[in-house]
Design goal:
- This protein has about 230 residues and is α/β, with parallel strands linked by helices.
- It contains 8 helices and 8 strands.
- It has one domain (about 10-220): TIM Barrel (Alpha-Beta Barrel), CATH 3.20.20.
- It has an 8-stranded parallel sheet.
- The radius of gyration is 16 Å and the shape is globular.
- The structure holds D-xylitol-5-phosphate and zinc ion.
- Zinc ion binds near residues 39, 41, 72, 181 and 201.
Length: about 230
């Protein structure tokens, strides 16, 4: 999964913005439009004030696409969800550092199934909190909105967090992907890429567009200065 700033970033449509009345068709639509991963938001209505996509819904679309299933869990008891999410076909499981006192336990529980592990952290959590775990994870996700809802505006202090993370992981043997999630648009993407983001998650920008294909292509365009 490793990348560096010169590589083409991967685009992950967030299915939270999909039309749930035809969820399978939506998965097909963004697969055909050139997505690299599919991002599923699982929420329990407790860690964040909303409900999201459930493991059975993820399982129901597993055979519709060969894309990587990037599952972002915003739940208070992450350990209780892992088995169900593995069975549903997750390839990456990203949990919130705010959700468990011992993140290493959650990382181990995910990795023992040969699934990639990621850590997300909310806008008010400092990057220092995730430093001890950077060498044992495959993905790091600084949230660029308060987690829970799609359609919010990108918090611009996330650019610094991305850069900070990029500098922190530079010397590691296995560099985790830097994913950015929340309010990502085609205006935001070049700056996020320039700062070191390797995965761009986008819900509203892709699903509410008339041409997801065009938006996905624009989102992954590496700024000229970085090529
Ligand atoms: C927010 C979710 C995001 C959300 C992104 O808690 O984690 O994945 O769906 O949606 P947009 O791109 O609309 O902000
Ligand atoms: Zn998400």
């Amino acid at each position: 999964m490793n990348n560096n700033r010169a590589d083409t970033p991967k685009i992950a449509p967030s299915l939270l913005a999909a039309d749930f009345s035809c969820f399978g068709d939506e998965v097909q639509r963004v697969t055909d439009a050139g997505a690299d991963l599919l991002h599923f938001d699982v929420m329990d209505g407790a860690l964040v004030p909303n409900f999201g996509i459930s493991p059975p819904l993820i399982a129901s679309v597993r055979d519709k696409t060969e894309l990587v299933f990037d599952v972002h869990i915003m739940v208070t008891h992450p350990l209780s969800y892992i088995e169900a999410l593995i069975d549903a076909g997750s390839d990456i499981i990203t949990f919130h550092i705010e959700s468990h006192d011992d993140p290493n336990l959650v990382i181990e529980a995910i990795k023992k199934h040969n699934v990639s592990a990621g850590i997300a952290y909310s806008p008010n959590t400092k990057t220092e909190a995730i430093i001890p775990f950077l060498s044992s994870i495959d993905l790091i996700l600084p949230m660029s909105v308060e987690p829970g809802f799609g359609g919010q505006s990108f918090l611009t202090n996330t650019y610094n967090k991305i850069k900070e993370l990029y500098n922190l992981i530079n010397d590691l043997e296995n560099t985790p992907d830097i994913s950015v999630d929340g309010g990502v648009t085609t205006e935001i993407s070049p700056i996020a890429i320039q700062n070191g983001a390797t995965i761009l998650v986008a819900g509203t920008a892709i699903f509410k567009s008339n041409s997801p294909e065009k938006i996905i292509e624009q989102l992954r365009t590496v700024p000229l200065s970085e090529t």
